[in-house]
Amino acid sequence: MPLDRLPIPRRTRPRTAPAAPALAVLAASAALALASAPPGAAAPPPGGSAPPPGATAPAPTVEERRLSRPEPQEILRRGGLADAGPSLERALGRARSLHRAEAAVARHGAALWERAVARAQGRGPARGDLARGDDRPLYWARLDMTARLRHWEPPFALDAADRARLEERLERSSRGQDSLRFPGGGVVRRVVVTGFDPFTLDRDIRIGNPSGAAALALDGTWIRTPDGPARVEAAVFPVRWEDFTGGEVERTLAPVLPRADLFATVSQGRVGRFDIERFNGAWRGGFPDNANLSRTGTVPVSDPASQPQWTATTLPYAAITEAATGPFPVLDNTAVTEIPAGSGEPVLRPQGPTPGSTARAGGGGDYLSNEIAYRATLLRDRLAPGVPGGHVHTPVLRFGEGNTSQVTDPEYVRNRRAIVEQVRMIITVALEAPPGR
Predict the structure, then answer these.
(1) Alpha-helix residue ranges (DSSP H) falling in 37-135
(2) Which pairs count as long-range contacts for 410-416, CB under 8 Å and 24+ apart, including other chains?
(3) Percent of the chain topping pLDDT 70
(4) Is the pTM of this model over 0.85?
(5) Residue 13 has pLDDT above 90, yes or no
(6) Which domains, ranges and CATH numbers included, belong to the chain?
(7) What is the distance between the alpha carbons of residues 374 and 23, in angstroms, rounded to a whole number?
(8) In whole angstroms, what is the distance from residue 422 CA to residue 107 CA?
């Protein structure tokens, strides 16, 4: 059935007045500060001012340090969101209390998310020549904002706990995590979709993530189905182990999953194909995250005594894999890696886990894509066992052949657009599938 959008208006979105920062100058200033700072001193963030005499500037995070490189600066400049960081900095400069600062952080974080969604969906001015569906400007603009917030020295006492709370508020609001709100009434079906930030940026700092692009394209949209309209709400998650350890997935999804009719966690997976991941494992394999940290061990969750080694998708995988959803093949992936009961060595199981086995990799591997799938489906099983949901792995988003330096090219744009539209169609098929399919 062809996809359609209902002519139902979106919720009102906050708007932020544009500014005109000189990003080339800011990047050069940051590089100069790094070069001239004494050993152990932290340079101000791009565009940030030095702290007052005697104050200690926080060291930039691993992610923030990447921001001064030319490719992120170009993406910011061409992506329409470069004014978000300076705008937050000005608002913080006017804040004379923690309450005012928290309000400014929440307002500017939400505005960044809403602007990124509007840009991806073709609403309002693009304010830059990168294709509207690009997810990378949101990532780099958020890092610019967090760097400025962390470097900010207020005119009032601000302890570490208060600053951490401000940082968390900015993270959640700028990712759509605190704005997953469905309209009331029983006639509207409700869909939750999640995506991820770009990752492996030390391998190629130009990388985007089609799952994040899909979240931006789908947030707040409507899908027509035979059983009535379906509203999609979406959010994006960081590629950081510690945020998952801290319960970010559960805080975001626990309020909405019991009300949902369908959910899909989405991430970038294998080259040239989609996968519906049948099984998710309770194991972290240790691949470094965006903070260059590694974690290995059982996925830490609340009530570990009742924690299963495996969870399973309840998405209608047969219907999805049989449908014509787009140019990429969609596979029902049942393979896992387990330690069989009574054994000590991991083995690959193409048809799924065996009874009593210990997880070493789900269908989606042993990284954060597997972990968000595990956490979301475990949360479903604990709070709303009847809700269809699971994990969708997209194809890898690739640049055109021979492009090793440009931040975009026509093939990159075409590939992202095709992946995003196929995610939309997969969600549509899942909504239309009869129970048990």
Answers:
(1) 62-66, 70-78, 84-94, 98-120
(2) 412/208, 413/131, 413/133, 415/210, 416/131, 416/133, 416/134, 416/208, 416/210, 416/213
(3) 86
(4) yes
(5) no
(6) 23-173 (no CATH), 189-432 (3.40.630.20)
(7) 40
(8) 33
